[in-house]
Design goal:
single chain; 496 residues; alpha/beta; 7-stranded mixed beta sheet
Amino acid sequence: MTDIKLAWSAVGGDPALLARVTTVVREGALPGRLPVRELARACVGACALAGAELGARRAGLSEVPAVRVDDGAVAAAFTSERHVLVDGRAPVAFAPLSRFWRTADGWVRTHANYPHHRERLLTALDLPAHLADPSNPEDAAPAAVQAALTERSALDVEDAVYAAGGLAVASRTPGEWAAHAQAAAVAARPLVERGRLDGARARAFTPLDGVPLLPAAGLRVLDLTRVLAGPVATRTLALLGADVLRLDAPHLPELPDQHADTGFGKRSALLDLTADRRLFDELLAAADVVVTGYRPGALDRFGLSPEALAERRPGLVVAQVSAWGAYGPWGGRRGFDSLVQVATGIATVEGSAERPGALPAQALDHGTGYLLAAAVLRALTEQSYDGGSRFVRLALARTAAWLTEDVGSDRGIGAGDGNGVRMDEGDGKGMPKDEEREVNGRVSGEVYRSAEPWLAETDSRVGRLRYALPAVSFDGGPDDWARPPGAWGADPARWL
């Protein structure tokens, strides 16, 4: 169980509980040069174990339920946004201006899925405003952007687009990123930052009984997150029984496909923090957990820093996730998984001599999301023993540092798992296709060929949905969400 040891330790887990985890190894799941499968397995395993531990605590069980991590389910969950179908329609993963571009001296990647980011990108490149209309079937923007970038350096583009409020990052090698001041700031932090905010009394849980075992039942979670790590975390808390209420500003609509993927188990409401502060305070007064996913400091002016929240609601767990971390020269920057991959050298490692590449999934987002949920669950368990308002904080760039550190040595994610980036190569060779048996402390099964066994369909208020089933699994726990996503912003801003 070397894979999960660091993740479980990062959230403060008891190492003795790792014996409760079994892994179903499936060759071919999340293939890449970097150990993505191992990272995904570790993050989901730590989250499931944290849920099982809290469930056992609340139900008065003598033993923590057994956890089973299946590479197939994990791979499907880590690519869940690609599997969603709404009335048979496939999602649009990236807009035309969210891609790699050749520059005079290298490559740059932009992110312009949201209209305001697209407009800012075009403004930074001195391109006309009418190109910001993505509904034009003869969209001339990609050609215009490429022409504007051809004579500019990648770092010049990165600086200019950032200054305009847009999103663009120059492709760096791992060595170039290691020499960057932000990389040093990230490396100095733990994978999961955790701490106490005050001396609030111990949390008294309502005992659990019945099946399924829902560790977060009765807990109220305010979800102030957007793409993608934060929504993955809160979707997981909803799976485990929490009443998750996502709040969005009316002027910042979510992409429908994103909401269809990450809205399972939640309700979605609109709330203007400037105009509706009294309503937010009423919600906060009854909340157990607040999860934020905006760039560091963006919500502080509303009194939503961890310290301010805990002062107003003692006993709260405050969870924060960001792209680059709340420190260093990039601490206040916006970011997305694809951009963090490019900055940290992952795109170079996964690419070719001709162009950068990408991981087989938005693994930084998904992995960080499951770790965030695990950290929240563990904070709740710790509160039941010794109280205290708690904060947990993660960053995609720190997860990227974990993914890329010491691959193939005794200090990386794949430590003890074989040959560097090619993990578990010999496990289960020669076994019958449908047979599973334990090999070297794991269960090895057939080669991963398709996500189909881990997909399901349901009716919803947004249409007939195909979706990836949950990867978080433990004995007696839930095997699906209690409700499908509804329309974005259509629910009332109140607790159930």
